[in-house]
Structures
1.
Amino acid sequence: MPKRAHLVAGILAPLCIAAFFVSTILTELFGSHAAVAQLKSLIVTPGLWIMVPLMAAVGGSGMFLARSRKGRLVDAKKKRMPFIAANGLLVLVPCAIVLDRWAAAGSFGTAFYVVQTIELIAGATNLALMGLNARDGLRMAGRLRVSPPSATRTS
Ligand code: HEM
């Protein structure tokens, strides 16, 4: 059961961040201020209410599964998780809340775009770290083959 929960949460959590990221870029580039404000509101509710429990589920179930595992891949995943959690809780969540408030009030000044840029950088960082964790997880579960080191000629 923790294995299935980890697989489902481990796929949904990066997808969730990717959806926030892509929709933010598209709306900022092509949408009106009203559309940006609507998206900011959706990212907070229901977005964060989905993303934060997913992150807790993937971290918790991962730590549980890791009790019986040793090795480079599991160690790398364990090291990445505090960065993912801190980046999420200390950067992404506050950014999403502040941007939602400012957008609802129609404040699209420099501060809005500075915070928006910080949010996009933090989102991309978490997406990359979660992608690496998903890749290492799929390798550990035997669903992804580890590519052999490139063959070298000896003659
Ligand atoms: C955002 C973070 C994470 C993501 C996206 C993620 C994703 C995944 C995925 C997709 C799998 C494959 C599951 C399967 O095919 O059944 C997996 C397996 C695994 N993950 Fe994670 N994971 C994350 C965090 C962690 C953490 C923090 C740990 C703790 C060290 C961990 C430990 C494991 C273990 C031990 C497996 C292998 C399960 C098995 O025995 O088959 N994961 N992970």
Note: The longest helix spans residues 33-66.
2.
Amino acid sequence: MPELPEVETARRLIADEALHRRIADVDDSDTFVCRPHAPGELRAALTGRTLTAARRRGKTMWCETSEGGPDLGIHLGMGGRIVVTSADGQAAEGGGPRRRDAQPRKPEWDRFTLGFADGGSLVLFDKRRLGRVRLDPGIDLLGPDAAEVTPADFGRLITRGSVAVKARLLDQSRIAGVGNLLADEILWQARVHPAARTGTLRPGDADRLYRALESALASAMTRGGVHTGEVIAARHPGGTCPRCGAEMRHGTVGGRSTWWCSREQAPPDR
Ligand SMILES: [Zn+2]
């Protein structure tokens, strides 16, 4: 599913290609993706305006609109992509790793469309229909963005209380943007067991986790998504650690399928 790096790719695409183009029409007829808005509500709110800025915190993205209009929130869900088409018909994509043209396409997988006056468009393409478009999405419940959190704030957030450290990394109200693959990659890079309790982490653990967060994010942004992480290809039965060669272990931590190195990520009770 799209995590911070994928959503940032989509945000940059909108910032680079979709701002300051007048919105001439809006297809908001998918009442599930556009809930709680009624059909026509997004059209009435957005037609005639332009997008003026594209912003993101964690996996939540929103666009500011002209003349004091509402913010347009777009969440990519489990596999959504943003497709921006220029006035001359050139399409560019941002979001999850699976490109739109790599899949059999059905028109109804375009869940939401802004039609620009210049003839181009911005589309939320989402086969699984788990994305969401809404006006003025709340971001107050989100923690600091994982790409912007300071080492001191991260250290406090990751050591407080007594939950599995992986659950804490996935808690969007504490740190926004880390999903299941990034969490496994960060813990593996830092050599921390996913079920280690937050309250038992030492300052050195918190420092390694912070550096792993920074490096995993930077690498995923450069290489095209969280699926490119070093340990991701080893997340399967029979997989071995790409660093030391030991067998990978599997379990459910924080409610999610989790893989870790049996040798370097020692169980917390040792
Ligand atoms: Zn290992």
Note: Residues 57 and 145 are 5 Å apart (CA to CA).
